[in-house]
Design brief:
There is one protein chain. The chain contains 27 helices and 41 strands. By secondary structure, the chain is an alpha/beta fold. The strands form seven sheets. The chain has an eight-stranded mixed sheet, with helices on both faces. It is flat. About 45% of the residues are buried.
């Protein structure tokens, strides 16, 4: 083993699981002296050509000196990483720090030479690209800012790895060698490349689970009943198009089939390749099954077996070991404790779940962490008549159970450019990585609606079996941040389905103006009131009277849709006495015909006990695909597909524009006005968000920001310890580097010190108690304002000490008076789960008692700063409420943007509070400020791609 003089402590935080380009997984970890045999074995499997490209000469084998060099690292100036599958190396990367003359060096030298070697069998899987991200992150952590690489011109694959990475680079050619030099500082381009590769890899890893060419159900019993046998029957009955196998060690040698499916005692006995294994054996036997699957080359597992983290600490450890074991073989897992997966595509027709019936094919994607909720969602979308009705189909369904591996983030990556999914519905009980979920949700929502309901919001902890990052933010704040990312947040499963049906069937409204028509004045008025409650702008209801015929309904709907002052129409209908289903069909046809004449505006129906009408409205069309292959007599429509863009970064799927034409002729029907209008309200807000993100704001640059000075201050301060709250002078100096001035507050331990401070500042002044129980509490009398001279100051000092105690208890300060205005508070905090968050509100009761604070993710753009100020309920106080003078919101926006830049530029700044910030009609004054620093995390959201660690 290496001794302490030869190496630093093993950097375990560099270990990571990554998803490769083809959807498989590999483990990245530092190379140690214990890897000598693995390195030699790996090198023997590399072709002579690859060896030549690595060493620029024939190099058939590694010498003992080579092995020592490539396995002994100090993890600072010399670092080697390996990508492994099944514990064996498939690729290596190494850097050596060098000085200006190219010779080995130590810090402060900030350049290193980097070199890769990838086993030929694994070339083309994106292994080198993943290793480059990880070795780059390691180098930045160790103070290296630039890589240099020498590559033979014929080694085009490796040259492409470097040039496609998106870093700022220089390229030269000398002595027959291409020399590449590139900075390691992430750029917009490098992040775009990284995120595009992440999306492509994770989407393919899910695709391998949802579109398998062969499936083995391991644990299918010999007799009917049981989980495994039920899943096997469901796959077979759905008409699965691939190869299906039943596996159970209890089968006899003579038992060749189960329910007409080929039967085997072990997956190793199957002659053909197996893509996905559904595991339904007791938890104690799962490790053996996983090992057999890994050895056989199975690509992914759907584990329906229970007895894992949901069962307690022992089960949680079993779950961790399950993930470690599966990833070691390059497999991904849905589950454990999963309900299963469904894909209605005619290419596969897979129902590898406990759902006894295959749902109708359609264009809604469903994700549920709970099996019970998943069943409820499938049932509601499948059911005709009553409630929300109609032929509404599903593209794919994933129930993740304990989501130990594949999570909602992975499924979002798949749905993003899935041509068969137009709307995504998600039931989440926890969000393991809110920062990444928000990033993915924003991108997905820009292309297709994403509707989310979150359970377990008020239990204060994640559900059993779910590993999540701890967050200090209240649920309401996280919810607000998700809405800003374009997520349609609803509170119940009913609302989830209601909104999903409208978004799947109708175009997005161009605005909030709603026309209401129907044959019941009372139902029309209820709809009108519901619109007002949702913030919509309803027109007076048009009463067609109870004697209205289907033709009257059609004509009235056509007139409403033709009206330029209308963005959406709600039709209300009550049954006539003795109405028949035939008449329901006639009314449905009349509404469909009228709606078809104006396909750019959404139409909703509120019905009362009209099961026939709801069914008839859905009978004329379907959410099943309309162009291409046919499903049950319905032609398949292909949605937008992401096409490769420049440098391999795929462009986004072309979204339907907000307010676009009706892509499907289905009119959704709702049994209550409130449900219809609530769904419409969500569609209106989502359409508005789509219009806003079409013109994103910018993060401004400021000439007076001194980022280097701030970095130097922070570095010097952090040398004192792991984390600290800055003193007054240090806070003012750091904020000043970003153009944020703070009014001086001079401590005054005695009346004489208070007088001296006032003379230096200049009268009038304020005298404040800054003890924690009195700070920012003017209502308690701990503040004296407009003290014009020494006499008033001494009198005020005596009053405060008489009321609240000694100066040591009060901690009094003297501060110059600021112009009168509105007291506000600005905060920024680094949350472990959500990331950097900027918050704004009015100081005092509005924010502390009523929680009237608005939030945005950092970095904040100019448009987001403008909307942040206007998002709080008490915003009218800033804009001249009841005749008061409007304050300088432009100056406030600039302050918000500067605080955002400070936190974004320096991850060591983990908390900033400016309170109060007095915003006057002309300018503002920061009267109080605090800043907290802490060492930055070794890895952040700008770091390399990794799967969650368990």
């Amino acid at each position: 083993m290496q001794n302490s003089a030869d190496r630093q402590e093993y950097p375990a935080h560099w270990e990571a699981d990554v998803v490769l380009r083809d959807g498989g997984t590999a483990r990245v970890r530092p190379i140690t002296v214990d890897d000598a045999e693995r390195l030699v074995s790996f090198y023997e499997q590399v072709s002579d050509e690859s060896k030549y490209y690595r060493f620029f000469a024939p190099y058939p084998r590694l010498s003992a000196k080579d092995v020592h060099r490539f396995t002994h690292h100090d993890f600072v100036d010399r670092v080697g990483l390996a990508a492994t599958i099944g514990g064996e190396f498939i690729a290596t990367v190494r850097y050596d720090r060098i000085g200006p003359d190219g010779t080995p060096a130590s810090a402060p030298a900030d350049e290193a030479e980097v070199a890769f070697l990838v086993q030929d069998a694994h070339q083309g899987r994106g292994v080198a690209s993943a290793l480059l991200e990880h070795i780059g992150a390691v180098a930045r952590e160790r103070g290296i800012r630039r890589f240099a690489a020498e590559v033979l011109p014929a080694n085009t694959k490796m040259i492409k790895v470097f040039t496609d990475a998106g870093y700022t680079q220089k390229r030269s050619f000398e002595d027959g060698v291409v020399r590449l030099e590139f900075d390691l500082e992430p750029t917009d381009r490098s992040l775009a490349v990284q995120y595009a590769r992440e999306q492509r890899a994770e989407a393919r890893s899910v695709r391998r689970l949802l579109l398998p060419g062969s499936v083995a159900v391991i644990g299918a019993g010999r007799s009917p009943g049981g989980v495994g046998r039920s899943v096997l029957r469901n796959i077979k009955d759905a008409g699965y198009t691939g190869r299906l196998y039943a596996v159970n060690r209890a089968y006899t040698d003579e038992q060749k089939e189960i329910d007409g499916v080929a039967a085997h005692r072990s997956v190793r006995d199957i002659d053909d390749h197996v893509d996905v294994a559904v595991v339904a054996v007791p938890a104690a036997h799962v490790p053996e099954v996983v090992a057999e699957c890994g050895a056989h080359g199975v690509q992914g597992l759907v584990v329906v077996s229970a007895g894992y983290a949901e069962s307690g600490p022992d089960g949680r450890e079993r779950q961790r070991e399950l993930v470690r074991q599966a990833r070691a073989y390059g497999m991904r897992i849905i589950g454990p404790n999963a309900f299963g997966v469904i894909n209605t595509s005619p290419e596969v027709r897979l129902n590898a779940s406990l759902a006894p019936e295959m749902p109708r094919p359609g264009r809604i994607g469903l994700f549920a962490q709970s099996g019970a909720i998943g069943v409820a969602l499938l049932s509601r979308l499948h059911r005709r008549g009553g409630g929300v009705t109609g032929v509404t189909g599903v593209s794919t369904f994933v129930s993740s159970g304990n989501r130990a591996d594949v999570s909602g983030n992975d499924v979002l990556q798949y749905w993003y450019d899935d041509p068969d999914t137009d709307v995504a519905l998600m039931y989440l009980e926890s969000i393991g990585n809110p920062r990444k979920f928000t990033r993915l949700a924003r991108r997905t929502a820009a292309a297709k609606p994403l509707v989310v309901v979150q359970g377990a919001r008020h239990r204060g902890a994640a559900p059993q079996g779910h590993a999540v990052r701890a967050t200090r933010l209240p649920h309401a704040t996280v919810s607000a941040l998700l809405r800003q990312a374009g997520v349609i947040r609803v509170d119940t499963i009913t609302e989830l389905v209601d909104a999903g049906l409208l978004l799947a069937r109708q175009p997005l409204p161009r605005g909030p103006r709603v026309a209401i028509l129907g044959n019941s004045e009372s139902l029309g008025l209820l709809t009108y009131d519901a619109c007002l409650a949702e913030g919509l702008r309803p027109q007076p209801p048009v009463d067609l009277t109870t004697g209205a015929s289907p033709e009257d309904f059609g004509a009235a709907l056509a007139r409403a849709l033709a009206d330029d002052s209308c963005d959406a129409v709600v039709v209300t209908a009550i049954p006539a006495i003795g109405e028949t289903s035939a008449e329901d069909a006639v009314l449905a046809e009349a509404l469909q015909a009228a709606a078809g004449e104006a396909p750019s505006k959404p139409v909703l129906v509120v019905h009362v006990e009209l099961g026939g009408l709801a069914e008839a409205l859905s009978a004329a069309a379907s959410t099943a695909p309309q162009v291409g292959t046919k499903v049950a007599g319905v032609a398949a429509e292909r949605g937008p597909v992401a096409q490769p863009g420049a440098d391999g970064v795929p462009s986004a799927p072309t979204p339907a524009a907000p307010g676009g034409t009706r892509a499907r002729g289905l009119i959704p029907a709702y049994p209550a006005a409130e449900r219809a209008v609530r769904a419409l309200g969500e569609a209106v807000k989502y359409a508005q968000w789509r219009r806003e993100v079409a013109e994103p704001g910018k993060v401004p640059e400021y000439e007076d920001i001194d980022e280097k000075r701030a970095a130097g201050l922070i570095g010097g301060l952090l040398e004192r310890g792991q984390g600290l709250t800055l003193g007054t002078e240090e806070t003012c100096e750091l904020l000043g580097a970003y153009g944020i001035g703070v009014h001086r507050a001079v401590p005054a331990a005695t009346p004489d010190e208070a007088v001296a401070a006032a003379r230096s500042i200049g009268y009038p002044v304020a005298l404040k108690a800054t003890a924690p129980h009195l700070r920012h509490r003017a209502d308690l009398g701990g503040v004296r304002l407009d003290l014009a001279d020494e006499e008033q100051l001494r009198r005020a000092y005596a009053e405060l000490t008489d009321l609240f105690g000694t100066p040591e208890e009060l901690r009094p300060v003297v501060q110059g008076m600021a112009p009168r205005g509105v007291d506000t508070v600005v905060r920024a905090v680094i949350d472990p789960a959500a990331g950097a968050v900027l918050s704004f509100g009015l100081a005092g009761a509005a924010s502390q008692l009523l929680g009237d604070m608005a939030h945005r993710l950092i970095p904040v753009t100019d448009r987001e700063a403008t909307s942040l100020i206007r998002s709080i309920r008490t915003a009218p106080l800033l804009f001249g409420w009841r005749g008061s003078a409007p304050v300088d919101t432009a100056a406030l926006e600039q302050l918000l943007l500067r605080v955002s830049r400070l936190v974004d530029d320096h991850p060591e700044v983990v908390a900033v509070t400016l309170e109060p910030v007095v915003v006057a009609p002309g300018g503002l004054s920061v009267l109080g400020a605090s800043v907290r620093l802490a060492p930055p995390p070794a890895r952040d959201d700008l770091g390399p791609r990794t799967l969650p660690a368990y």
